[in-house]
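Intended use. Records like the one below are meant for learning the mapping from a protein sequence to its folded structure. Do not use them to infer anything beyond what is encoded.
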Amino acid sequence: MRSLPLPLALTVRLAPVAVLATAGWALSSGPDTAPAAQDRKPPATGDRSPSAPATQAVTKTYAAAPAPCESLAGKTVTSLVPGAEAAGKEIPSTDTEVRRTCSWNALKGYDYRWLDVSFEVMESDEAAQKSYKERVADKSGGGEVPGLGDAAYSVVNLATEDKQQTREGTVVVRASNALVVITYNGSDFENRTAPSTDEINKGAIKAAKEAVAALADGRG
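Structure written out for the chain above:
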């Protein structure tokens, strides 16, 4: 069996690292240092101005991203990425509480597969919903995936470089204040074609379902 060089676009791939920063303010007051007096009268309450209501803390369903390399069953990894180590490789992140990504890739014979699972935790459901809508708008041509998270979208695209086809599927899922993003692609280096749209789409959705379940379970 002859070995063929991988296209440059498939040999180097970096997952973006998103960093979300949060800020908080604390109000404090010094102790009462006025001298005590025997005939000191309690302050009148009739003309007191009402105090400002306390700021209600935002309740987050998910406080941190789970371990992404533990989000898929070993048999799922080996079925989607034949020849890959089930353990996967986590991509370094500047803030693992906010974003974590795991990648699996392997070349078996002439068939190449790459799979990414990424978790992104945001400050609120509204922030996650806004990010979800922006991502979906950037990936036209796909469709909704019913019954997955609060909202889910799947799209598959075909790219050709140096006469080699690569088909890539992306699934974006919003679950409360978190996003789960799956990227799954493949190429056949023997005949320079790519796996079918159905194969890539179903594989990406399968990974997305397991990753969302791992998020809900608090795994990792």
